[in-house]
Amino acid sequence: MSVLTLRCHPGIGAPITGAPITGRALVAADGFSARYDLDRNKGVFSRPTHKLAGQSYVGRILVLHTAKGGVATAWMLRDMAERGIVPLAILFNRVNPIIAQGAAFGAVPLMDRFEGDVTALLRTGDLLALDPAAGSVTVLEREAT
Amino acid sequence: MLAGAHGPALRWAIAHQIEVGRFFDAADMVEVRQAHIMADSESLGAAGVAHLDSLAGVQTRIPTIPDPRGVDFAAYRRLGISDDLADLERRAVRAFEALGVLMTNTCINYQTLIPPVRGEHMAFGDTGVVIYSNSVFGARSNSKARPSALAAGLTGRTPRYGLHLDRFRRATDRFVVEARPRTLADWGALGALVGRAVNDYWKVPAIEGIVDTPSSDALKQFGAAMASFGSTPLFHIPGLTPEPFEYVGPAPEPIRITEGDLAALYAGYGAPGDKLDVVVFAAPQLSLIEMHEVAGLLDGRRVHPDTTLLVATSPEIKSASDRMGLTATIEASGALVLDGVCFYQSYAREMAEANGWTRLMTSSAKLVNIIAGYGYKPTLASTAQCVDCAVAGRVQ
Which residue, A76, B88, B214, B228, has most beta carbons within 10 Å? Predict the structure, then answer.
């Protein structure tokens, strides 16, 4: 039984098999820069002023506002994926071409353009099922607050 | 290509482009004239070089040119960069050459190699090149990450979305400049303020109030800083940039930029009295005119023995500078001219660690924005002020 289903643009970087991607959300009204926000060896947010500072992103579905960073960060998602120290997927409000290209190249599922602010609609700890091909995100479980 | 009739490299390239194109609702592909790739070994890493090696056997279909190298092979040992990193760079160079890439090693191709023409579709992968080409020439390119730029070089086309389309080139934000930028650093600071305010790839600022016609070098700094601070790929300056534009909807209320705003930006990086470790003129590489200016400022003076001054330019401009005696004048001061590299993509962190560098001065707003992430403490000042401080050995 689902708590909530959000619609968005069909995603990028997801396997063509189309199987849903299920995982726990890590949400913040903040940005994402592979170069400046992360310790890519430890798999944690390392920039002290980031809202997720100190938290591990490995295997989590990140929910953030937008991606920052220049052309080089596109490579980093692939490098992270190859080393297995990588988010399960990333949901954004709206992304620029660089991170989208990086998600495709690194095969890291990325979805954006939700109906509303995705960082306000989802909560850390939500169990999510992502359907990138259809452009939908279903909240399967939400902790009671 | 998609069926693999042209081999696995092209199958990967076109599949990648189709995936990106679908994500941005592109109706079709557009043929592009050139591809420009960020191609230094620092951003590639060993895995990136291995990926390039795996593409061996294909050739680029359109002129494909790279950004600056990660290593100046003639100078790297003096800067404390290891032979291992230089070897990785050599492997990257060989891998690109095997693909037919023309090793231009520059981020100022629009100044020194060939300027784009209005309406020309390109696949450019340096944000400073993208914003200058789109804005000052009216060419059409999105910002291409390396895999996408390389894919375009292999297929000769790119998905038609974003800046290739008229509707994404309309202005969305409006600025009125009440300051008068004088130096190249001022133009960079102005670009930084616009970029910071816009902060969105999909927004296009229109900037009014520019009184003094800027030079190409001024617009180079302006655009590079705006792209660095805001991810901006296009701006319009009525009466200056060639592309007629309209606003999306009614013209918005303008954001005013004052002399005070410029001063505040500089002050944010100020560090008067600090020992000065390194001065860098780069980001982007210097034009011949800038090299001439730097030579004039250094003529007859000596850089402080505890300060390093680096000047980065493209191979063509280095060659011209050598021939015209500008390199000799600059290096007689104790400064070092670097060939075909920039700074932040040339193992800046390794250089900082090898040389004990922390306090850096530059006239590039783009560089002050990004270099803190490499362990430096940057200060922005005009080229002339940077030279004075390099001679004094202190931030003044």
Answer: B228
**At B261, which amino acid appears?**
D
Say if residue B284 is preceded by a cis peptide, omega within 30 of 0: yes
- Give A-chain residues touching B125 at CB under 8 angstroms: 71
**A70 and B228: CB-CB below 8 Å?**
yes
Q: Which of B233, B64, B68, B67 is nearest to B152 (CA)?
A: B64
Closest-CA distance of chain A to residue B40, Å: 10
**Cβ neighbours, 10 Å, residue A27:** 22
Among candidates A13, A71, A100 on the partner chain, residue whose Cβ is nearest the Cβ of B126: A71
CB B81 within 8 A of CB B40: no
Sheet arrangement for strand A89-91: A4-7, A136-141, A127-131, A21-27, A61-63, A89-91, A110-111
Which among B260, B262, B110, B238 has a CA at the least distance from the CA of B182?
B262
Say if the Cβ atoms of A74 and B126 lie within 8 Å.
no
CA B5-B9-B13 angle, to 5 degrees, is 95
Q: Are A113 and A65 in contact (CB under 8 A)?
A: no
The model's pTM: 0.95
At residue B305, the 3 state secondary structure works out as: coil
A42 neighbors A81 (Cβ within 8 angstroms): no
Beta strand pairing call for A44-45 and A38-39: antiparallel
Question: pLDDT per position in chain B (396 positions), as tens?
Answer: 888 888 999 999 999 999 999 999 999 999 999 999 998 888 888 888 888 898 878 999 999 999 999 999 999 999 999 999 999 999 999 999 999 999 999 999 999 999 999 999 999 999 999 999 999 999 999 999 889 999 999 999 999 999 999 999 999 999 999 999 999 999 999 999 999 999 999 999 999 999 999 999 999 999 999 999 999 999 999 999 999 999 999 999 999 999 999 999 999 999 999 999 999 999 999 999 999 999 999 999 999 999 999 999 999 999 999 999 999 999 999 999 999 999 988 999 999 999 999 999 999 999 999 898 888 999 999 999 999 999 999 999
Kindly provide the ipTM of the predicted complex, given to two decimals. 0.94
CA distance A33 to A29: 14
Residues 6 or more apart whose Cβ sits within 8 Å of residue A89: A11, A14, A21, A23, A61, A62, A108, A109, A110, A111, A130, A132
Q: Which residues of A touch B162 (CB under 8 A)?
A: 97
Q: What are phi and psi of B134, to 5 degrees?
A: -65, -45
What is the rounded (10 degree) CA torsion for B75, B81, B87, B91? -80
